[in-house]
Design brief:
about 140 residues, Thiol Ester Dehydrase, Chain A, 3 helices, 5 strands
Length: about 140
C-alpha cells in the first residue's frame, strides 16, 4: 500500500485539480472492468493537463517532465459508463524531482490511489534540470 495517507491531512481536497472521465469501451479489458494500464494513461493525462493549466500564463518551454516511478494501489473496479473523478496535487518537490499524488473516485468511493515521481529535464539537452524557485512557485503556490 502507498504511504501517502499522512499527506492527505495537509492537502485541502477542494484545492486538488480534478478531471472527470467517462469509462468507454476502449478502457475495458477481458475482465469487464477498466484495464490497469488505462489508469496509467489517465495518470499521464491529468498530470499533463494540470501542468498546462498551472503554466497557462507563464509556460516553461525550456523544461520537459519524464516519469521515473509509478506506485499504484487498485482498490475497487470501474466499469463501462462509470464517471470517474480524478484528483491530483503536487507533493514533495526538490532537486530534479516532483511527486504527484492522484486519487480516482466513482461517486464517493475511492477506486485507485497513485503516486508518480517526475523528473524535470532541460528541453534541449534532455539532461536533468534542478527545479528552481520559479517552477516551485507554480507547482506549490501556497509555499
Amino acid at each position: 500500500m502507498l504511504k501517502f495517507l499522512c499527506l492527505l491531512k495537509f492537502v485541502n481536497m477542494e484545492d486538488a485539480f480534478t478531471l472527470t472521465i467517462t469509462v468507454s469501451t476502449e478502457d475495458i479489458d477481458n475482465l469487464h472492468h477498466v484495464n490497469n494500464l488505462v489508469y496509467v494513461k489517465w495518470m499521464d493525462k491529468i498530470a499533463t493537463t494540470h501542468w498546462t493549466y498551472l503554466t497557462k500564463d507563464s509556460p516553461f518551454p525550456e523544461y520537459v517532465w519524464v516519469v521515473i516511478r509509478h506506485e499504484i494501489d487498485y482498490l475497487k473496479q470501474a466499469s463501462l459508463g462509470d464517471e470517474i473523478i480524478v484528483k491530483t496535487w503536487v507533493g514533495e518537490t526538490k532537486g530534479i524531482t516532483s511527486v504527484r499524488l492522484m486519487e480516482f473516485y466513482k461517486k464517493d468511493v475511492l477506486l485507485v490511489k497513485a503516486k508518480t515521481i517526475w523528473a524535470m529535464l532541460d528541453s534541449k539537452t534532455f539532461k536533468p534540470a534542478r527545479i528552481r524557485e520559479n517552477v516551485l512557485k507554480v507547482l506549490q503556490p501556497t509555499k
